[in-house]
Structures are given as C-alpha cells and as structure tokens.
Amino acid sequence: MHIWRNHAATGRRFAAAALAIVVMASLSGCGTDKIKTGSIGRTGPGKAIETMSTGELRSTSARLGKAYAANPDDKATAIQFASVLQMDGNAGQSLAVMRKLAIAHPKDRQVLAAYGKALAANGQFEPALDAVRRAQTPEYPDWRLMSAEGAILDQTGQKDEARQLYRKALDLKPDEPSVLSNLGMSYVLEGDLRTAETFLASASRQPGADSRVRQNLALVVGLQGRFDEAERIASQELSPEQARANIAYLRSMLAQQNAWSQLKAQDGKKSAAN
C-alpha cells in the first residue's frame, strides 16, 4: 500500500510508523495518521486522501495550497491542507498551518484536536496532549478527542492509559471503526498481532469503516505472513499495482528483519565461543 512505503519519514501516518516499529522490533514512538488511523476525510467529491498516489497527493496539495493562500483563516480548507501535507510527508509545514489556525480559532475544539495531531506528528507529544485536553470538555466529552488523546499516549508508551481512553470513547460511540482501529494499532505497537487483528477485523466490518481501517487490517495480516490475504484486503482500497508493491515491500522488510536476527544470533555464538 502507498502508506506502508513511507515508514522512514518523520511525521508520516500512524500505520506506516507502526509498520516500522513492528518490523524493526522497537516499541519507541511513531509519527499515523495516523496518529490518526480512522478517517481523515476527503478533499471534496472523489478519491479519499488515504488512497491517493504520491502524484495525486502532490496535485491535491497544490490545489489546496492555493485555496489556503487565498483565505488562510478558513477552517475547513486549512485542516484539509494540513492533512494532505501530513500524508505527503510534510509534517513541519502541516504543523505551521495548524499553529496559525489555532491562533485564529483558539477555542475551536476541532481545530485544537487537529493541532494536537499535527504536534504529535512532529514528535511534540506533551504540547499535543495539552492541545487535545484543552479541546475536551468534561461536561460534554467528545469521543474523537478521547481517541486522539489515546493515540498520542500510545506513542509515548502509555498503552494502559491509552486503552482506557479508547474504551471510554467506545462507551460514548459503540463500535466506532476509527476507535476500534486505534485500539487495534495499540496492540500492533505492543507486538500482539492476533489481538490487533481481532479489533481491526471488527472495525473493518462496521458501517462507516474507511480505507485507513482496512489498510491497517491488511498491514497486520501481512505482518503475520499471510501475504495473499493481505494483498486481497489491500486491493479493495488501492490499485492492484499499489497493493502488490506494498506486499512486496512488506515481504522484503520482514526478510530483512529475519536476516538481522540471524546475524545477531551468529554474533552471539561467536562471542560465546571466544
């Protein structure tokens, strides 16, 4: 999938970073979608952002950039522009857009939430948490903000606190696919792929499940070595060429991980022999 191939860039989508974390056997931070793994919406009638090719992202970014330049205080345009910039790997520029919008709309919950995600995509987790928490109101709690806060906590290794928030969000919005997807990706970060698949499969069956949810499911299935099944899932969202390319990439990354493991094992034997 298009998203899997962007794992190395700072601020890329949450699922892409999760792939890098799992493959490289590290439980440090990540950069997606996402933080956000649920829907980030569309830029208008047509293809969803998360299924766009690199060329389509650049074209959409250029179009939204012109609209943003004409009216930088327009909330919808700025948030869409920031989302596309993040998707295309321009996390720093995305943060600059959201910071300016947050100054213009200092009490807008949607803006603060998007600003928090942009901060987290740049590795600024404490300010991100502050922004998301400021957007939340205890008397009228927002499940989206709970899920966003949980995703940020997951990236700082606070998985228990994150999962409590996901479950609170599900109490407010039962079976919400984006929250179930975030919960599933929390288990990916822990390396528990079977539990992750259970939540992601449930998320993908829900009405309103978007492309990102199913792409995350394909990722987790592929990480378990079921490449043909992962490609079938991926092909529902992407072109056959994109799906094949990403499964091939996943195979190579897993093979590389195995090769490094073998080399480390050999080094260990040599050290013991000496």
From TrEMBL:
Coiled coil region boundaries: none
Segments annotated as TPR repeats: 143-176
SMART domains (UniProt xref): TPR (SM00028)
Gene3D superfamilies: Tetratricopeptide repeat domain
Keyword Zinc: no
InterPro entries the UniProt entry points to: TMTC_O-mannosyltransferase, TPR-4, TPR-like_helical_dom_sf, TPR_rpt, UCP035836
Alphabetic keyword roster: TPR repeat
Name the record gives this protein: Flp pilus assembly protein TadD
Upper classification of the organism: Bacteria, Pseudomonadati, Pseudomonadota, Alphaproteobacteria, Hyphomicrobiales
